[in-house]
Amino acid sequence: MTKKMVFPHPYFSSNPKWKWFILLTVLIGATMSALDVSIVNVATPTIENRFQVPMSMIEWVVMGYMLTLTVFLPFFGRLADMFGRTKMYNIGFIIFTIGSALCGISPNAYFLIFSRVLQAVGAGMLQANSVAIITQSFPKNELGRAIGIQGAVQAIAMSIGPFISGILISLLNWRLIFYINVPIGIIGTLMALFILPASKPSLKKDNKIDFLGVILCATGLGFLVLAIDQGTKIGWTSPFIIFCFLAFLIILPLFILRELKTDNPMLDLRIFKNWDFSTGNITGFLSYYVLFAVLFLMPFYLEDIMHYDAEIVGSILTPIPLAMALIAPFAGTISDKIGSRFMTTLGMIICAVAVFLLSFLNDIINIYFLTLIFIVLGLGMGVFTPPNNSAIMLSAPEDKLGVAGGVLNMMRALGLIFGVDISSMIFTSLKLNTLAQHGYLIESKAPFTIYRIAFMNGFSFVMISLLIICVIAVAISFTKKSIKRKEGVEESFESIDLL
Fold it and tell me: Which residue has the higher pLDDT, 49 or 490?
């Protein structure tokens, strides 16, 4: 039986270099979706003043994007497995571009929040399918390298987002941070149409969308994300936060029961029986928890304790994503040769060393030594992430690559949210408690010597907690197995070992 041509033309299907054009196309979508996670943060004060609305509303310009992106990633992955990953990726480009244009022309804050949600839907389709398309297009011995390049580009995009936003806002107009996506999105859409492999929808004739599963998953995750994100702002004992946690605890078992009972689950939970898939996602979550906890706390340390100007704090933190971007492709290439277990374990050990050194910071630290610590942390993340993502994708059956990519990116987003908010809660609580012990109930009235003691007490405790998380991630990474991919997949993947 003749196999259906995967590429647009026989020449391309036989050209080994074509896969790099596929990667380039995927990188455009990855860059756009990653850039918009951070590019809006700098603009929120300007948007607040422009629309004359309270900050509590403008926060939803950021929160609406992150919430939508996080809760629907598994669903977008499932849709891609059902109807074709390339088709959903192309639709994602179009929706993201339209959403960006609508953000730019927004006449008020409500319209802007709606447009950001629409933009997040497109970004979710891009993120859920990007790693799956790369996995389909690259052989085992090059997959880690390809995913490493993707990780490097995403790290750079997230790191330069605030810088680009600051330039556009100061020199031109805040609306340009959204308009800039439109020409890039048009180019990406055209490239996706002509370069990406033809869509390969599921062969199952009885495939149906599990709407109840989608609703339970989205609402459950939504309540969890809201509780974690808003808990630090309105208090962890507030009725709303308690309600959100209780709602999540009620919906979670209902979702699990639904997915185990239905014939066409939105998220086939059997995929988690694969040890490499489960441990890869757990350690991925822990790694991003650590990374973004550090990225969140360090600006406060650099400004409040070291007294650096806000303008140069960003440049001081640049070595983290830069080192990550530089090492990621090489780490992916090495993991293609020796497997993921050693590389992921080594990466988290390096992260643990960096966090251990950060726990000893004080107000007389040498800035060059601090920069070296940031480089070490970036190297650790760069060594860890590509092999870990490669192992996750190779451990999933080909007909569930979209779901696997959605879960992978969902765990990364949850790691970001939990890392920032939980660390903020711990840090703030300990800092205020220490100030109260010294007789200062109002933070601004405490002398700097007392404030420094309180600040470093909370800071050091958070770093120790992050060190413990790194050690746990090291132990979990070390347990990864090497097993054969199951039969019944495409020919080019029949011999792939699960790293």
Answer: 49
| DSSP letter (8 states) at residue 5 | P
| 148 in Cβ contact with 333 (< 8 Å) | yes
* Whether residue 258 is found in the same domain as residue 313: no
84 Rama class: left (phi>0) / alpha (psi -120 to 50) / beta: left
Residue 37 burial (C-beta neighbours within 10 Å; 0-12, 13-18, 19+): buried
Instruction: Supply φ then ψ for residue 238, to 5 degrees.
Output: -70, 150
Is residue 356 located within the same domain as residue 391? yes
Q: How far apart are CA 24 and CA 307, in angstroms?
A: 41
Contact by Cβ (8 Å): 177, 233: no
Q: Does the reported pTM lie above 0.70? A: yes
Half-sphere exposure of 361 (CA within 13 A, CB side): 33
CB 90 within 8 A of CB 142: no
Q: What's the confidence (pLDDT) of residue 10?
A: 42
**Which domain-ending residue is among 228, 263, 298?**
263
How many domains, the chain?
3
Q: What is the pLDDT of residues 10-40, one digit of tens each?
A: 444 445 667 888 888 888 887 777 777 667 7
Give the mean pLDDT of 313-323: 81
Whether residues 180 and 215 fall in one domain? no
